[in-house]
Amino acid sequence: MKKILILFAHPAFRKSRINKVLIDGIKDIEGVTLRDLYQLYPEMDINVEKEQELLNHHDVIIFHHPFYWYSTPPILKEWLDLVLEHGWAYGSHGNALKNKWFFNVMTTGGSQDAYCTKGYNRFTIRQLLAPLEQTAKLCKMHFLPPYVVHGTHSISKEGVLKHRENYSKLLTGLVNDEIDLKALEKMEYFNQYLSKSLKQR
Amino acid sequence: MEQGGFFYQALVYMAAAVVAVPVAKKLGLGSVLGYLLAGVIIGPFVLGFVGQEGEDVMHFAEFGVVMMLFLIGLELQPSMIWKMRAPILGLGGAQVGLTSVIIMGIAIAFGLAWQTALAIGLTFALSSTAIVLQTLNEKGLLKTEGGQNAFSVLLFQDIAVIPILAILPLLAVKDMVHAVADDGHHEATTWIDGLPIWGQTIVVLGVVAGIIFAGRYMISPVFRLIAKTQLRELFTAAALLLVVATAVLMTKVGLSPALGTFLAGVVLAQSEYRHELESDIEPFKGLLLGLFFIAVGASIDFHLIASDPLLIAGLVVLLIAVKFIVLFIIGRFFKMGLDNNIMFAFSLAQGGEFAFVLFSFATQNSIIENGITGPLVAVVAVSMALTPLLMLINERLIQPRFGTKEKEIIADEITSEKNVIIAGFGRVGSTIGRFLQANGVTATYLDVDPDNVDLLRKMGLKVFYGDASRTDLLHAAGAEYADLLILAVDDPGKTLEISENVKKHYPKLDLVVRSKGWFDSYELIDLGVKHIYREYLDTSLRMAADALCKLGHRRYEVYRSIKTFRKHDERFLHELAEKRHNQSELISEARQRIEDLEQLMLKEQEDQHKEKDLGWDPATLIEEFGKMQADQETPTE
Question: Which of A45, B275, B577, B616 could anchor a disulfide with B522, C-beta 3.0 to 4.6 Å?
C-alpha cells in the first residue's frame, strides 16, 4: 500500500477545462492526499515545515500542473527551492526523500508530434523534464515517466473523460501496488503503460 | 359584548394557540393545522368557549391575509412578476376557467339554476391564499417550481375576485330578486358607485398609479424622517399605517385590499426600508393569520355536518377531486415535473376564504338560496381544514416514491449564487462592498444611518436601513440563507452583541468580523468567532514596510518579513486570549496591554533567528562543498 501526495498547481484553476475534470475524478481515492498549492499559499508563503512533514508521510510525489513554458507554474519552483533543503532532501545527510517515487501529471496544448526533434518544440517531453529528473535523482528518488494530456486546445469531451478515468485508475493502481514500477520506469510516458495493460486484459 | 369580554376572548384564543400549535408542530402537522384544530376545540361544538362571534373575529383576522400579501410583495421585485406573467395568466386563467365550468356543470346536474351554478363554480374555483402560502412557506416549498406556480395561480385568483364581484349581481335569479334586492346593495358602498364605468376605470387606475408613485418617491423620505427620531415603535406604527391605509383606499375604490397591499409591497421591494418594514409587520401578520385560522376552525358548523354527514363528505371529496384533477392536468400541460405537479395540485385543491364573502354576497343578491349556502360554506371550511393534512400525506406518502435522480455534472458546473450580508457601511464596510462588487459579488448591506443609506442608494447600491443587532432584522435580510455575514460595524460593543446573536440564532452562518484591538478581539475569540480582523493591523504593517524600504532594505525581503510578522501576530492573539482564562487575578487593561506587548516583543526577538528561508540560504551548502573540496585537495598537497 503506497501513499500518494499530489502537489497541484494551476494559477487560473477556475478557467481550466481539463484539470478541473481530472481533479474531480480523483477526489475520494483513499491513500491520496491532494494539495492545491495556489489555494493553500495565495501569497506563495509556503509552509516549509508542513510540506516536509507531508513528504515524510508519503511514498509517491506527483507534480500535477499545466506545462507552462516547458516547465511548471512558478509556485512549484518556489516549492522546490524552499522545501527541498540541503541536509534534508539532498547532501550527504539529506536522505528524507530517499527511494520515494516522483513523476509529473501535465496538460499541454501541443500534440505528441510537436514534442520531438522534428516537431516545432524540438525536444521530447522527457528531454524537457530533465531538470526535474535530475532534481529527483539528487534527492535519491526514482523518477517515473510523466502522464501527459496532449492537445488540450482541441480535445473532445469524451477524450477528457477518458483521461479522468485513466488518472484515477493510475492512482488506484499505485496505491494498491498493482503497477509494475520497474517496467514503467523504462517507458517514455505513463500513458503507454496504461494502454498496454488495457490491451493485455 | 359582555364586561371584560375582550380580555376573555383574548385569553381563550391565545391559550388555544399556545397549547395547540406547539403540539401540532411536534407531531409534524404544521402550524396551520394546529391553529385550525385549536379553533375547532374552542368552537361552539366542542368546548363552546367562543360562539357565533367567531365570524366577526374571522372578518377582523382576514386582515392577516392582507398583511401576508404585503410581505410577499416586499419579497418580489417587479421584474420577477414580469417574468411570472406566463404562469399567472396561463395557469391561473386556465385553472379558474376550467374549474368554474366543470363545477357549474355538476351543480346544474344537481338541479340548480344555471345562474346559481355559475356563482358556485366561480366561488369554488378560488383557493385559500392564507392556508396555501403559509403551509408552503413553512415547508420551504414556496421557492420550488410547484410553489411558484401555486403562488401564480393564487395571485390570478386574487385579481379574479374583482370581476367576479362585478358579475355576481347580474346573475340574480328573477324569482327571488324582489324580496332582498335592496339588501345587497348598501353593503359595498364605495366612492365610485355612482360613477359610470369609464369613470370607475379612471379612478381605479388613478389610485393604482398613486400607490406606485407614492411607494417610489414619497415613502423613502418620510421613513427617513421617522428613522431619525430613533423611536422604534414609531416606525412600527408607520409601517402598520402604510398597510392599513392602502387596504382602506383599495376597499374604497372597490378593489381587493389584499391585491392593493400586494402592489404596495412590490413597489417597496426595492426600497431601503424593505427589511425594516418586513420585520415590523411580520409579527402582526403571524398573529392575525393565526387568529384567522382559529376562526375558520371555530366556524365549522358541526351541527350542519352532523345533520347530513354523507352529503357534506361527498361534496368535500367531489370538490377536492375536481380541483385536483383540473390542476394536475393544467400542470401537465405546462410541463411541470411529476413530483412538483402533484404538490401543486394538492396544495390548491380546496375552497378559499373568499368563498365566505362571495357566498354571503351571493345570498344577499338572491343568486343562491339560503338553504344551499349553509352546506356550501361548511364544505369550503372542511376542505380548507383538510389541506394541511393532504399536503402532509403528499409529503410523507407520495413524494418519497419519487427518487430525485442526480445528474452527473462535469466540467461546466454552475457556481450557485452566494448570499452575503454586510453590516455597517462606513469606511470599512464600503471598501469591502466595493471590492466584492468589483469581483461580481453583490451583497445585502445594512446600516443604521438613514442619511448614509440614502446617499449610497443613490449610487445604486443595495443598502437597507436597520440595526443588525436586531435578530428579526437579520432574519429579514436573509441571515437564514446567507453564506457569510461580514461585520464591519464601528462600535465594538455592537459588534460583540451582533456576534453573540448570530452565534445563538444562526450557528451555521460564517462570520467575518472587524475588531478594534486586542481586548475586543479576545472577547470575539471567546464567542467562537474564527475570522477576526483588527482594523489597524494591515495599515500599520504596510506603513512599517514602506518605512523599512525607505531606510534601504530590500523590498522583497521586507515583503516576506511582513507576512511572517502578521502570521505571528495573529497566532499570539489567540495565545493571549487563551492565557487570559488562566489568570486568576484581575489586572487593569492598560497593565495587561503593556505586559502582552512585552511578551510579544521578546518572542519576536527569539523567532528572528529561527525564521529564515533556508532553501535560499547557501550557508550549509557552502560548508559541505567546502569540506568536499578540502578533502579533494588534501591528497595533491
Answer: B577
